[in-house]
Write a structure and sequence with these properties.
heterodimer; A: about 425 residues; alpha/beta; Fumarate Reductase Iron-sulfur Protein, Chain B, domain 2; 4 domains; five-stranded mixed beta sheet; about 10% strand; B: about 450 residues; alpha+beta; Uridine Diphospho-n-acetylenolpyruvylglucosamine Reductase, domain 2; 20 strands; globular
């Protein structure tokens, strides 16, 4: 057995790699294995393939690259693993070693290396795309449109929401103070994430309004960028990921709390230190940064400690039945499970119904759904069944990524349920 | 390397999308839940119906290509490792639950249904299928039958063979045969489906299964008891059962699992104890309450501390710790040699004592966990195959542990099967005439030995 140290990122997590006993506890819960029913889809198989990489038995071939990409990093395997093997960590590291050897393929390289790290340029491109979206693509129901010109490189005929005419950062000031007469209890930095900034700016406005009303001053640092999840977790491009991490750390350096409305952004940014800290200085900075991050529901329930009476349902949702989709990044990664449910239960004028397997992955997983759209949709169909079984009018979640996936799936399946962010319900 | 024309034929039988040949995929089918064995197949196929299995077997038989059946690939005897290469025939895409019949208390399933999915579907109707191998979240029904799986619940409810009513099997020459039926009583000819139950894929490939079911017990409760002396724990189990209580599970864990109980039991007690017993009683609520009381009274006489799980959540915490035993010990050694002996219940204390003495003599760490209620133990020797000398000592210790079990009137495998892992012990453990009969049956049903070759007995 020869040990090859050319896989330096994987080597960092060798303990996790070695801890798998091949027992197969990971199988029943794996969303990808459930669809494909083959060993290379499931955690145990991927672990064995990565061990074979280190042993020099296999190389980073096209197929190997695909096997590494074919995982939603939903963390269910790690949760069910009696040995606690952190499979998603090992897979992310393997993706990074893959990128070191093979680079990121076109057109993803353009998007990941050039657009995502440059917030303004990305914004302009998105805006340009939105014009094309209007010109070339038929408008579907509501504000959903088929995938636009530039994004079409990344997927099939996906129903995605229309790009907002005015981005969040263009419509709100950098500093948002509580209204007159309301005392400032906390000051937070709002990490808006790409989706809320470009696609769901009304969500951002609602969050700012709710926070300020409840005594939270909200700063939106203009220097912030993309969280980098697609780039370093999805595509394994650690070098670009590091630049993005540094940008965000700098943008929020003077703030004690960083709140997000996107579980993926929150958990990915907390993971900077695990994957991207290549120097002591970065390790220190990323650790401090991670400590400040709170998901919005976690912040409201655990930090601000708002009483149930502070949550009112927005008039348009009164009398509706609502169910909750728990994003993987929220429940399994951040451990935030009770907080959103507490908020939903506080809302007097809705009926909250728990869906079966609320914590099962929706299949979005960023780049995963771009690379493997059909598979991603099959996974989402299971989620759609759960949603349907509750009889809910609205499914809420806490991750714009999940939201887009669910919108796409429900539209495709011609299901009537609306998909909303939990904070859209609240005022 | 398999001839391309064979691969093309397999593609024609099962469809191109159901045949894998890449190096990467072969790596992913070179192992199962067993620790020490691995071998890559030449091709993996996923038939989607019995006809495809039959055609594949017929073709493989005509061309002398080994076929290793596989479901979830979670067994721990090497049963699904394609030790002679050739075809891995994986049933995971045949995963339909064909019928669950509440009136007849039976269900018919395809072999690729995951046990956990089956249990979930049954639970919705208030039913259950008792065998509960620890691999339930990955293992498939074909494997459960072919390995005659057990698990903790088998103390009260028996093993898989007690639930098999009927099977459909594809034979080595491709013939499909229906055995047994739908009724719990059936005295028609030889019990041929029992021949395939526990056959480890060496006699045929199971294509459909009809199982007897039970209604889910209305209540259950878990008692935890901790002991200083393993022998005393063993005697306590004997006392519980002698008091006319038949718990649904009695599980034994040693020190290696204790970390999972920190915060539940005081460190001072954990640090000076050797064994935890988990005892589950099930049945009608009033019976459970009375029996738990009785179990508590008995265990309190000998145990250092006794806990009754306050609710299902706490009980699940205990059971999770039990399920994690293997990975707990695995995290502390490069390699584990895990055994599966079963001894008569009144020999439990002797077995533990003698095995510990053997481990001491060979100077290797040994851990015990198992279904102590029915005498089925999983002694595990911790070693490191990279250290030849240590590894040899470990193997010798395991040999001796097996000898001890046999001398006490036990068997070499309670529930894992023989596969590759225990083939070298078969001659010691079985009447030579019985081995002869088995071989004749094998020759009759699979004269060319293409079905799961290299398993059960040492060939050549």
């Amino acid at each position: 057995m020869k040990t090859d140290t050319k896989y330096t990122e994987i080597e960092k997590f060798k303990d996790a790699l070695d801890s798998c006993t091949k027992c197969g506890f990971c199988m029943a819960g794996c969303p990808v294995y459930r669809e494909e029913k083959k060993e290379s889809s499931v955690a145990r198989g991927k672990i064995m393939l990565i061990r074979a990489l280190l042993d020099g038995e296999v190389e980073v071939t096209d197929e190997m690259a695909e096997q590494l990409n074919r995982c939603t990093l939903c963390m269910t395997c790690a949760q069910n693993c009696p040995a606690g093997t952190q499979v998603p960590t090992v897979i992310t590291a393997a993706r990074a070693d893959k990128v070191k050897r093979r680079g990121v393929p076109f057109p993803y390289n353009i998007v990941f290396r050039w657009l995502l790290p440059r917030r303004r340029l990305f914004g302009w491109t998105i805006r340009l795309a939105s014009w094309f979206q209007r010109i070339f693509l038929p408008k579907t129901e509501g504000t959903l449109r088929h995938l636009s010109f530039f994004l079409s490189a990344l997927g099939k005929s996906r129903h995605i929401p229309q790009i907002a005419p005015k981005f969040l950062r263009e419509s709100v000031p950098e500093v948002n103070k509580p209204p007159e007469g309301v005392k400032v209890k906390f000051t937070v930095g709002y990490f808006t994430g790409c989706m809320t900034d470009f696609v769901f700016p009304e969500l951002g406005q609602k969050i700012i309004s709710f926070l300020t009303k409840n005594g939270v001053e909200v700063i939106i640092p203009r220097g912030q960028g993309c969280c980098g999840a697609l780039v370093f977790l999805g595509a394994g491009d650690f070098a670009t990921g590091r630049k993005m991490a540094d940008t965000n750390v700098k943008a929020f350096k003077d703030l004690d709390y960083i709140i997000t409305d996107c579980a993926t952004c929150a958990s990915s940014m907390k993971d900077y230190v695990k994957f991207l800290a290549d120097t002591e200085a970065r390790k220190k900075a990323y650790t401090a940064y991670a400590g400040k991050i709170k998901d919005i529901t976690e912040f409201l329930v655990d930090v601000v400690k708002l009483p149930a009476s502070a949550y009112h349902v927005a008039p348009e949702f009164k009398g509706k039945t609502v169910t909750w989709h728990e994003p993987c990044h929220l429940g399994r990664y951040l451990g935030v499970k009770e907080q959103p449910r507490k908020i939903l239960k506080s809302l007097k004028d809705i009926k909250f119904v728990e869906m079966p397997d609320a914590d099962r992955c929706c299949g979005m997983a960023g780049t995963f759904s771009i690379y493997f759209y059909d598979l991603s949709q099959k996974i989402a169909e299971k989620k759609a069944e759960s949603i349907s079984s509750t009889g809910a009018d609205i499914v809420v979640t806490d991750c714009p990524g999940c939201q887009i996936q669910l919108m796409d799936t429900l539209k495709r399946l011609k299901m009537p349920q609306e998909v909303r962010h939990i904070m859209e319900l609240v005022e | 390397m398999i001839d391309t024309k064979h691969v093309n034929r397999l593609r024609a039988i099962t469809g191109k999308e159901n045949v894998l040949t890449s190096k990467e995929e072969m790596v992913a089918y070179s192992y199962d839940g067993t620790q020490m064995w691995s071998h890559q197949p030449d091709v993996v196929i996923f038939p989607t119906n019995a006809t495809e299995i039959s055609e594949t077997l017929k073709y493989a038989n005509e061309n002398g290509i080994p076929v290793t059946p596989r479901g979830g690939g979670t067994n721990v005897s090497g049963g699904s490792i394609p030790i002679r290469g050739g075809i891995v025939l994986c049933t995971t895409k045949m995963n339909r639950i064909i019928e669950i019949n509440k009136t007849n208390l039976n269900a018919t399933v395809e072999p690729g249904v995951i046990l956990q999915d089956f249990q979930d579907a049954l639970a919705k109707q208030g039913l259950f299928f008792p065998p509960d191998p620890q691999s339930y979240s990955g293992c498939t029904m074909g494997g459960v039958v072919a390995e005659n799986s057990g698990g903790p619940s088998c103390l009260k409810y028996g093993v898989t063979k007690q639930y098999v009513l009927g099977l459909e099997v594809a034979l080595a020459d491709g013939k499909i045969v229906k055995l047994g039926g739908l009724t719990p009583k059936n005295r028609t000819g030889y019990e041929l489906m029992m021949l395939f139950t526990g056959s480890e894929g060496t006699l045929g490939i199971i294509t459909k299964i009809t199982l007897r079911l039970l209604p889910v017990p209305k209540a259950n409760q878990t008692v935890l008891a901790i002991f200083r002396d393993p022998a005393v724990a063993g005697e306590t189990v004997t006392s519980i059962i002698a008091s006319s209580i038949l718990p649904s599970k009695v599980e034994f864990m040693d020190k290696w699992t204790f970390n999972k109980f920190r915060g539940i039991i005081p460190d001072a007690i954990l640090d000076t104890s050797e064994v935890i017993l988990l005892i589950q009683v099930d049945g009608l609520p009033q019976t459970v309450a009375a029996e738990v009381q009785q179990v508590v009274t008995i265990t309190k006489k000998t145990a250092r501390e006794v806990r009754v799980a306050a609710d299902a959540k706490e009980a699940e915490k205990y059971w999770q710790a039990r399920r994690a035993h293997f990975s707990d010990i695995h995290s502390q050694a490069h390699d584990i040699i895990n055994e599966d002996v079963s001894v008569p219940r009144d020999k439990i204390a002797d077995f533990i004592r003698l095995s510990q003495e053997a481990a001491k003599r060979y100077d290797v760490p040994i851990s015990f966990a198992g279904h102590v209620g029915d005498g089925n133990f999983h002694p595990a020797v911790l070693t490191d195959s990279r250290n030849k000398e240590h590894y040899q000592r470990a193997l010798k210790c395991v040999d001796e542990v097996i000898e001890i079990a046999l001398k006490l009137g036990g068997v070499i495998s309670g529930e894992h099967g023989i596969g590759l892992e225990k083939a070298r012990f078969l001659k010691k453990a079985m009447d030579p005439t019985a081995i002869e009969i088995m071989k004749k049956i094998k020759d009759l049903l699979d004269p060319k030995h293409t079905l799961n070759p290299g398993k059960i007995w040492e060939e050549g």
